[in-house]
Design the sequence.
């Protein structure tokens, strides 16, 4: 390996942030209907690989892991369910949770002609917050168990994996320790997670000095990002904003991005 190949690969680009004070309504399947008042800000997105061993969910809100999977057909319902179980076990290991459930697996690609549900999401956001976590807890667990689980600490963790090596439209996460609650503004997602008939509630991020962004250049299918979106412990690091972005250094013939993401709720 050459010396140049080991240097951090930081990139300066523009990220879309919500206008301060604005609530957005995002129609995942019909994006032209959305009200997402945004503004572009130039940011430096740092290479997380040199510090990957220093990252921690409780300190930064995200981790980059070498976590291969033997699932290859993410279009197959049975295989997608098996992958979900693998992610639940991973999150249980990361958090020492008593129980982990999952919902909302979405395969995304930047290939032309892709339906809005499956396109990469541009715009710094956090999906989702306490309201949607509670909704899914009552969906997935018996009512009395759900009430008991929600009375104790719980957290929402997203697991994001490339299906093929990432050559274009990469993924960035913010260091959650640099995200302030006052810079997050309410978001309603209509028809999200593949077109479900319910509104999902989260936040969009307004730009502020001090926010730090990271990416993992050329992520591979054996790697994944796990990042914390919500924590019932209000003092804990959380609200890991994230977004797709355009890499100005990507070649013109770069392959479209393909990825899968899954939300998990860990009950401690």
Sequence:
């Amino acid at each position: 390996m050459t010396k140049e190949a080991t240097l951090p690969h930081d990139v300066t680009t523009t990220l879309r942030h919500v206008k301060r004070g604005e609530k957005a309504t995002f129609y995942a399947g019909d994006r032209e209907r959305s009200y997402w008042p945004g503004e572009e800000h130039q940011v430096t997105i740092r290479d997380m690989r040199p510090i990957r061993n220093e990252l921690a969910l409780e300190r930064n809100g995200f981790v980059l892991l070498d976590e291969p999977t033997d699932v290859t057909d993410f279009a197959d319902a049975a295989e997608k369910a098996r992958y979900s179980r693998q992610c639940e076990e991973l999150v249980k290991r990361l958090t020492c949770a008593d129980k982990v459930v999952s919902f909302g697996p979405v395969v995304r690609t930047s290939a032309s002609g892709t339906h809005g549900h499956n396109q990469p999401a541009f715009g710094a956001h956090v999906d989702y917050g306490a309201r949607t976590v509670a909704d899914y807890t009552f969906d997935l667990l018996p009512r009395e168990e759900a009430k008991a689980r929600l009375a104790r600490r719980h957290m929402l963790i997203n697991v994001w994996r490339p299906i093929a090596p990432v050559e274009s439209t990469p993924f960035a996460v913010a260091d959650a320790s640099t995200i302030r609650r006052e810079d997050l503004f309410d978001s309603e997602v209509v028809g999200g997670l593949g077109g479900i008939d319910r509104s999902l509630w989260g936040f969009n991020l307004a730009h502020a000095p001090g926010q730090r962004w990271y990416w993992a250049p050329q992520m591979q299918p054996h790697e994944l990002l796990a990042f914390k979106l919500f924590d019932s412990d209000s003092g804990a690091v959380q609200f890991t904003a994230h977004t797709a972005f355009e890499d100005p250094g990507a070649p013109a013939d770069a392959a479209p991005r393909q990825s899968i993401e899954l939300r998990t709720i860990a009950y401690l």
Notes: Residues 25 and 188 are 5 Å apart (CA to CA).
